[in-house]
Amino acid sequence: MLPMHRGIRTLTATFQESEVLLTRLKGDMQVVTTYLEGAKQSMEERRGLEEDVRWKAGAKEGLDQGMDQGLDLFEAQKALKMQPQVLDELAQLRSRLQETEQRAAELAEAANATNRRAWLTIGIPTVPRKTGADYLTLTLESLLEELPLDSSDPLYGRVRVLVMNNRPGNHNVFYQVRQRIDEGSAEDAFVAKARVYVAMVDNPGTLPDPAPHLPDPNDLDNPTNRPGRQVRQQTCDLITLLEMATPQSFYYLFMEDDFRVCPYSLPILHYIVRKLNAVPATRNWLSVRLSYGMNGILLPTLYLPSLTNYLRMHTARLPPDLLYTEWFAGKREETWDVVRGRQQYVYHKNLLDHIGAQSSFTVRAERLPFPRCFASMANVWSIQAQERFQAAACPGSDLSPCPPGDGGETWVRIPIQWPDNFGDDARFHPTSEPAATLLL
Question: Which parts of this chain are annotated as the region Disordered (predicted)?
Answer without folding.
Answer: 207-229
